[in-house]
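Hi there, hope your week has been kind to you so far. For a while now I've been wondering how a particular protein folds. I'm sending you its amino acid sequence along with the backbone structure tokens. Could you read through the record and tell me how the tokens relate to the sequence? Take your time with it, there's no hurry, and the full record follows here.
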Amino acid sequence: MGRLTTSRRVTRLTLEGANRQRPDAIAVEEPLEIRVAGSPLAVTMRTPGHDVELAAGFLVSEGVLSRGDQFARAIHCGGPGTGGADGNTYNVLDLTLAPGVALPSPDIARSFYTTSSCGVCGTASIEAVEKVSTYDVSTDALSVSAHDVAAFPDRLREQQKTFDKTGGLHGAALFDGTTGELLVAREDVGRHNAVDKVVGWALLNDRLPLRGTVLQVSGRVSFELVQKAVMAGIPMLSAVSAPSSLAVELAERAGLTLAAFVRGSSMNLYTRSDRIVASSTTPVADEVAGVR
């Protein structure tokens, strides 16, 4: 596994004039080339670590895998001393699928790299991105306490050790909706990579579909994050920041519960609010002023 952080000297400047130089921890961002059976599939910019989970989760999102027994093994190409200025050559990962599992379509293979901020840059259309999931999250009987949902962001934040050092990583965590148990948490410079690592963990532990779970993310909600949740059979996605219009539309079509602006004691429920159990019995007031 490569470095998670590196150090650079920075000039700390303040308006009060207390300027000084000091070392600063920076989150590492490096490319990972994902291959299947020796053939290049995609390149993503990521924080090294949990690369096999990242690649496995990516294949779930692309509709290539949906069960743990469809994954055979993975190997990093190269090794210490075979190249790279810092000795890190673990940036190519070759996956082998189980016998009988269809290889990815050539249409999935991308001649561009996905950046850490956008996992689907270069895709021709929304129709090409929206996959048909093996799992139907609309029928999931998830019921989760609003108090638990409100606590999930802080519980994810407690797991973000590299963020503590750098302030530069996104986080994603999976919680059991019934017990509130934290199942897994992952960090990455890319929000979509952090989610892929969580989904990949589930695939490698043969836990798909992720019925009855809540996916908590540390930032905003894009279309792609909703898609990744649906492809993994996750019935609820919670975020501390805003959703996009396409994210809300996909969540509504799929029957996924989408909560955003989950901060402190409040949250906005955009779809399937029936799954959230709140202690308050105050009738919901309908405010329309200022909404455009």
